[in-house]
Every structure is written in C-alpha cells, then in structure tokens.
Amino acid sequence: MEAKILVFIVFLEVFVLSNLVMAAGYSNGGGSWNLLKKSIGISSMHIQLLQNDRLITFDRTDAGPSNLTLPKGRQCPIISGKKDCYVHSVELDMVHNLNVRPLTVLSDTWCSSGAMLPDGKLIQSGGYGHGEKVVRTLEPCRTCDWKEDYNVLISPRWYASNQLLPEGNIIVVGGRLQFSYEFIPKSPRPEDRKVHDLPFLKETRYSSQIPNNLYPFTHLSPDGNLFIFANNRAILLNYVKNIVVRTYPVMPGNVARNYPSTGSSVLLPLDLSEKSTPEAEVFICGGTKPDSYNKARAGIFLEASRTCGRLRITAADPNWEMEEMPIRRVMGDMIMLPTGDVLIINGAANGTAGWGYARVPVHNPVIYRPAESVKAVRFEVLKAATSPRLYHSTAHLLSDGRVLVAGGNPNHNYNFTVPFPTELSVEAFSPPYLTSGKPRPAINAIRPGKNLAYKQRISVEFQLNLKLGQLGKVYLTMVAPSFTTHSFSMNQRVLVLAVNGVRRMSGGGAYAVEGDAPGSAAYAPPGYYQLFVVHEGVPSVAKWVHIK
Predict the structure, then answer these.
(1) How many whole angstroms separate alpha carbon 67 and alpha carbon 76?
(2) Are 524 and 480 in contact (CB under 8 A)?
(3) How many CA atoms within 13 Å lie on the side-chain side of 334?
C-alpha cells in the first residue's frame, strides 16, 4: 500500500510541475502542431531524412519488445542469442501517406552516430555491446534494408559524433572512454587504418562517471578544419595532421553542455554572398550544472540552464557572446530552419539526460533569429506541444519546411504506465512562417539541373502569387540533412547562396533567381542538400540537389 501511495505522489509531482511550465504564459505562441501518426511502432532515438524524402529512424535492439512485429514471412533474427521478432528500425515515407516499412537491424544501435555519404547512402556507426564496432549502411531504395559490417571500427564508439568531410569521408569523434577519432568508410589509405589520439577529449571530462563531454559537438569550419566542443571548451582541429590549430576561450558560466548534461549546438548559416571565405559562428544553448546527473540519481532535479553562447570561430580574437533563452532547457534539439533561424524544441527544465533523471517537460519551442541586431528580440516563444519529449527524443527538418518531432523514452524498456511513458507518436511543428498567411514561393525548375558543380551559376525558377505589392527580398538556401540523436543534429548546415539578381518571367507570378553554387567542399561537403527559395522570410518546399 505504501509503495502505491509513493508512486501516486511521484506521478502527481511530475504532473503538477509539467503543467506549471505549460501554464507559464507561453501557450498561445506562433506556429502550429499536427499529429502525423499516433504510433510508428518504435521510439525514435535516432533519425535521418534521405533524399527520397523517406525518413529512417531506429531505437536500440536491447530495449526488449517494441510495439511492432516483423511482417509475416520475414524470418525472425537471432539477436544476443535470442530470437527477436520485434522491429527496432523503420522507414517512414513522408510523401506517400506516411507508410511505415519495417527494417531489420541486428547489432545494438543504442547511442550510436551517423551521416549521409555523398552518394546518398546512410552510414551509421558504433553503438553498445556487440554493436560498438559495427558500421551499418542503408541505400535509399524502396526495398533496401540495413547491411551490417562487424569489427570495422578500430575502437568501440558509444556516444560518438560523426561529421561529413570535404573529401567525402566521415570522421568519427570520441565515444565513451575513447579519446580519439577515426575515419569511415575504411579504405587502403594508412590514415583510415589507425586511430588518431585526441587528448582534448580526456582533458574535458568532468569525471569518469559523469563525462559531460560525450556526443561532442562537431562542426566543419569553412577553412576545412574541424571545430570540436566538449563540456565547456572548444578547439579547432586539423584532422589530417592531427594538430590543434586553435584553442578557444572557456564558455562562461558553470554549465556543462554535453552528455549527460545535454545542451545542443548549431553552426549558424554560412553567408556565401561575399567572395572571400565566409565567417563561421557556432551557437550553443542549454545544458545544466556539472553535477546534475549525480543529484538526479539522488532524487534532486536541478534547474537546467537558460544560457546560450555565440562564438565566431573564424575571428582573429574570438570571444563568447552570451545570451539567455526565455525558458531554461536541457536535452533540447536545435534545428536550423531554411530561413537561417534556429528552432529550439523538446527537452526538460529540470534534471539531466538519463533513465528517469529529468522533470518538468518544456512543451514550448523557441525560435532564435541570429540576424537580429538587438538581443532582446532574437528569441520568440512558440505554441506549446501536448506530448512531453524528454530523453531520447528527436527532431528533423522536412522538405516542406515543417519540423518533425518524434521519440522520447526515459525508461529502460518500453513502458506505458509511468509518468513519462515511452513515446511512439510522430508530430510535425509548423514554424510561424507557415502560419503567417504570407504567399509562399514554389520552385518550378532548377537550371541547368539538380546536379551542381562548385562555383556553378544556377537559375531557380519559381512561382509566387502576390496579391498586393511588389516582390520582396528573395534569397536561396541549401540545407544539409542531419543525423539527429541525443539533442545533436550531426552534419547540420545552412548555406545562404550568393544571389546575382531576380527577374520576372513571362506569365503571372513567374520569377527566376540567379545564384551561385557554393565555391568549395569546405563550405558544402559533397552530397545531397535541400534547396529552398525564401521570399520575405517564407520558404518554398525544397527540391533536392546534389553537389560535387
């Protein structure tokens, strides 16, 4: 009887705290929510959109039964010595009625990492236990399934980060107790056949039990070096020569930003309108106090941080510019929008990442407009969601400009009878640009075609039905699709292309904008991108292009 009373009290505490955030005066913000699917059968811990607008998502294979079984006729694989007839990965078709296609993954993908190769193939690395050295690939076709190569990675990679490089290969950085990096896919090159030490990852550990530097934030700098942030410190790494070329100031405030004190990070849009190398600026938000994990294990859920920091990593004398979000947040996802703004979504206001270690879900997304010169107006609180998205939730930009939100499972297994149950639903959030009522451009053609070369002149023809007034500001953006897990969207990148002019074509509402493709693989690593036309802050539906 006492145990039941205790469970009820904990449930009541969580319910009240959760609703305190929802009732804090933020429920009527901009944007809108739409439930896409009540259940896709699995909880989306990892997520990647492919160039065919099919979304690949997967959980872990050691979480026990999911809510979806393999189709009849599909042989149940043996996983960890046991027959497993449950699905742990699916393809969600964002074009054709949100059809769910079960996929088969055998090795444990728990807390792994990934990226899209230049040919559009999803490559995915590491995980837990027997999956820690596995490299998995999935080709973008209607019948393709996971292929798994065991013992490809030299070191076990659990909680590592991946980044696509100008050469078209992937760097895999860190992992639990791994203070190094390596490259995939493997080739005969000597540098692919060894592990490269990175002492920075050992130096930034808070402790052996609470690293606060897992899933390090990695961003490719336009000078071709790799920016790496871990805990509260950052470096610029020449990964070819394994030389730290810059060490940045410590981020102010006693806040840890990486797992398990999980914040999030983005590379702000690269403006390619200038002929010189573009400036690059990193933006990091949220996290919590370094000892929050231990406190949460003891039942004390510390307040998350509301601080953010901007660092111009290419500046001669870089220093952090600190700002504050309207709502404190840990485990938030930061998604770059095609307008160049940042959406901050999901997460909690108290606690930390881990099994049941967070309280007070943050239901309200926040938009951040980095181009605003006045700090006070950069943030805007948006319309609240109804479903809490805590540990192991995800978010991803879709080609239609919405942001897909999925997952959330702070439980060891699938559990639907606890205050924060396993979340199987998929929602879409429409940012304010889709609910403003402003006319939206529609791309008709890309000339000379969708296969781009660096520095190539392109013409994007679009339709825009203006009822009143003249054509406003028009620009082009290219967005790299990201691999999202644990509040970090790996490889996420927005490029604002140089525009040479906009002309009106024959026929009502037809226009063409002339622009230049990115000038370097360091600006835009080879591969697929979503191309958007943006008019007065409203993006078109994207067309996929490929650059090499």
Answers:
(1) 15
(2) yes
(3) 29
Q: What six digits make up the tokens of 183?
A: 């490259």
Q: Tokens 């140089």 map to which residue?
A: 498
Rg (CA), the chain: 22
- In eight-state DSSP terms, residue 241 is T
Non-local (6+) Cβ contacts of 105 within 8 A are 58, 61, 88, 89, 136, 146, 148
Task: Kindly state the tokens that stand for 160.
Answer: 């590592």
pTM reported for the whole predicted model: 0.94
CB 52 within 8 A of CB 399: no
The label of the residue with tokens 């065919």 reads 52
- Residues 6 or more apart whose CB falls under 8 angstroms from that of 382 comprise 29, 30, 31, 364, 365, 366, 367, 429, 431, 432
Angstrom distance (rounded) from CA 360 to CA 162: 31
pLDDT digits (tens, 9 = 90+) for 17-69: 444 443 334 556 899 999 999 999 999 999 999 999 999 999 999 988 999 99
Q: Find where tokens 């009527």 sit.
A: 28
d(CA 2, CA 464): 65
Residue among 118, 124, 151, 152 at smallest CA distance from 136: 124
Strands 196-197 and 180-184: antiparallel
Taking the CA of residue 29 as centre, how many other CA atoms within 13 Å lie in the half-sphere pointing to its CB? Answer: 26
